[in-house]
């Protein structure tokens, strides 16, 4: 079965075909589940400054057949076994999906499963609200003869958190970069970076994905990077990095249908390049991180109308550091709503901001080095006490304690080796 890997590096389309077993990746980009036993070879990444959903280039070895180990800064080790009810960590990336148990005391990760599905390039993951299913983008340009990527569905086995493959469905566009559940857990919204589209896929009672019930197309130059619903599940938003806009649509939670809102988009200044956004727990604000301009914009949100408006923009970088050698990636609001965090690839740091509770605007608190290269994604634990960073180009997950009073981050000394991680998610198993 022929599959073509979709890749974008400094505006160049690169396809690498494979048949049957593995998929090879071109290393010039700057840049988890049963089944799929193919391996993925890794080229020599240039690191640093690539644009696009694929981020900045992967370097370092580690094929999909390699295992993952947990180690503290003092030496290697597998980590102590964790109780069955301990949180799970799911890691996605170019080398497949990995499953770990999390020790919340210090962020140590104990291997459970993986790598899985490496040949399908599962670079971003999402878990349903019931925490029984996991979904992964397949960041490819062609799957099963269709010029499109795909989305894969997996069961999370309740006894141990391991993954079992259910099915795949077309993402209705090349190079899917991001996916999110709607708030009801009935649909997956996927943004296709290469195709400039977004699609809504229904989820059956058995967890299987159906064919898309709706699509939105913005043109290839739009570089659609994220599709997400608002907290009330009435509206959908799609960040179009190449157009410097955030599309605003109505969302029917019963059918999955989307329609352009009024206005249909929030226009941001030229060169803003909006990548990901996250809503504040109050529902009054959202924050969008801007990939190439090295900034985060505070957005005021009108929940009745489903519209965003720009309030203020702050740099994610220290004074004197140029955005030209940096590419922002992920933004998240702390569960408390008091702080906002954003990742810098190039400066290799997490930028920390305090939130004004009235206006939602951000004040710089500081920067925490990620102790690795190219922090493509990070996740704050549901308790707000721990933050895990996926450093793509140094092949590791690094754990930090969060000071809930100041928002600052302190490394715990726990570093887990994972090849080319691009997503890390913390899931607390449901009570049994």
Structural notes for this entry:
0% of the residues lie in helices and 49% in strands. It has no helices and 36 strands. A six-stranded antiparallel beta sheet has the order 8-7-35-34-33-32, with no helix packed on it. It has a four-stranded antiparallel beta sheet with strand order 11-10-9-36, with no helix packed on it. A hairpin with a 5-residue loop joins β12 and β13. It is globular, with a radius of gyration of 19 Å. It starts with a strand and ends in a 5-residue tail after the last strand.
Q: Give the overall shape.
A: globular
Q: Report the average pLDDT across residues.
A: 85
The major pleated sheet works out as: 6 strands, antiparallel
Q: How much helical structure, as a percent, in the residues?
A: under 10%
Q: Total strand count, please? A: 36
Proportion of strand residues: over 45%
The secondary-structure class comes to mainly beta
Rg, rounded, reads 19 Å
Number of helices: 0
Physical arrangement of strands within the biggest beta sheet: 8-7-35-34-33-32
Distance between the termini: 40 Å
- Uncertain parts: 1-80
Relevant terms:
disordered N terminus; mainly beta; 432 residues; 36 strands
Quick rundown:
By secondary structure, the protein is mainly β. Helix content is 0%, strand content 49%. The strands form ten sheets. A six-stranded antiparallel β-sheet has the order 8-7-35-34-33-32, with no helix packed on it. Strands 11-10-9-36 form a four-stranded antiparallel β-sheet, with no helix packed on it.
């Amino acid at each position: 079965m022929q599959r073509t890997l979709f890749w974008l590096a400094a505006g160049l389309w690169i396809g690498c075909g494979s048949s049957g077993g593995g998929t090879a990746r071109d290393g010039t980009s700057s840049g988890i589940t049963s089944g799929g036993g193919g391996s993925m070879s890794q080229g020599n990444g240039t690191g640093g400054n690539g644009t696009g959903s694929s981020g900045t280039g992967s370097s370092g070895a580690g094929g999909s057949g390699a295992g993952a180990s947990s180690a503290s800064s003092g030496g290697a080790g597998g980590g102590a076994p964790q109780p069955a009810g301990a949180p799970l960590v799911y890691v996605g990336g170019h080398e497949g999906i990995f499953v770990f148990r999390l020790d919340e005391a210090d962020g140590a990760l104990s291997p459970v499963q993986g790598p899985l599905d490496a040949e399908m390039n599962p670079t971003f993951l999402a878990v349903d609200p019931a925490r029984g299913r996991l979904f992964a983008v397949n960041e490819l340009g062609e799957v099963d003869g269709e010029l499109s990527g795909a989305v894969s569905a997996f069961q999370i086995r309740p006894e141990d958190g391991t993954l079992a493959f259910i099915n795949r469905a077309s993402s209705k566009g090349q190079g899917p970069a991001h996916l999110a559940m709607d708030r009801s857990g009935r649909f997956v919204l996927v943004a296709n970076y290469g195709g400039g589209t977004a699609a809504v896929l229904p989820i059956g009672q058995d967890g299987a994905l159906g064919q898309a019930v709706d699509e939105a197309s913005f043109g290839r130059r739009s570089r659609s990077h994220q599709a997400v619903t608002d907290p009330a599940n009435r509206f959908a938003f799609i960040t179009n990095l190449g157009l410097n806009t955030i599309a605003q649509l109505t969302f029917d939670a019963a059918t999955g249908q989307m329609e352009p809102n009024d206005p249909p988009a929030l226009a941001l200044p030229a060169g803003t390049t909006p990548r990901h956004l996250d809503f504040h727990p109050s529902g009054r604000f959202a924050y969008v991180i801007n990939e190439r301009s090295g900034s985060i914009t505070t957005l005021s949100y009108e929940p009745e109308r489903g519209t965003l408006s720009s309030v203020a923009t702050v740099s994610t970088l220290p004074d004197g550091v140029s955005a030209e050698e940096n590419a922002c990636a992920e933004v998240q609001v702390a569960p408390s709503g008091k702080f906002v965090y954003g990742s810098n690839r190039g400066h290799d740091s997490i930028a920390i901001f305090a939130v004004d509770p009235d206006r939602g605007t951000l004040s710089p608190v500081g920067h925490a080095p990620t102790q690795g290269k190219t922090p493509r994604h990070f996740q704050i634990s549901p308790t707000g006490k721990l933050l895990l960073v996926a450093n793509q180009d140094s092949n590791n997950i690094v754990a930090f304690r969060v000071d809930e009073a100041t928002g600052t981050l302190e490394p715990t000394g726990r570093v887990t080796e994972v090849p080319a991680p691009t997503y890390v998610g913390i899931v607390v198993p449901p009570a049994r």
